[in-house]
């Protein structure tokens, strides 16, 4: 029975912690523009492709005499 109460108290503490983190994030305005984040990821991938073009594949395993 003791383990049940410990599990209940632990789950309540984790739930309250999650709510506090969410309230903190809302107050600090972390959720103001979620659309911008996905475009930043997209453009960083495009920049990597432009900076480092793909290398040509060599015919491995074949010898040319």
Keywords:
65 residues; mainly alpha
Fold and architecture overview:
The protein has 65 residues and is mostly helical. The protein has one domain. The chain is 68% helix and 0% strand. The chain contains 2 helices and no strands.
Short description:
The chain is mainly alpha-helical and 65 residues long. It has two helices and no strands.
SSE inventory with pairings:
Blueprint: H1 2-27, H2 34-51
- Number of H/I helices: 2
End-to-end separation: 79 Å
Q: Residue-averaged pLDDT, rounded?
A: 80
DSSP strand tally: 0
Assembly state (oligomeric): single chain
Shape: elongated
Overall SS class: mainly alpha
Major sheet size, sense and barrel closure: none
Count of discrete domains = 1
SSE string, helices as H and strands as E: HH
Global Rg: 26 Å
**Strand composition percent:** under 5%
- Contiguous runs where pLDDT drops below 50 for at least 5 residues: none
Helix content: 55-70%
């Amino acid at each position: 029975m003791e383990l049940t109460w410990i599990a209940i108290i632990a789950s309540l503490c984790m739930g309250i912690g999650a709510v506090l983190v969410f309230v903190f994030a809302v107050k600090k305005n972390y959720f103001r523009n979620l659309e911008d984040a996905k475009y930043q990821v997209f453009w960083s991938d495009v920049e990597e492709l432009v900076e480092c073009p793909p290398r040509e594949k060599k015919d491995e395993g074949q010898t040319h005499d």
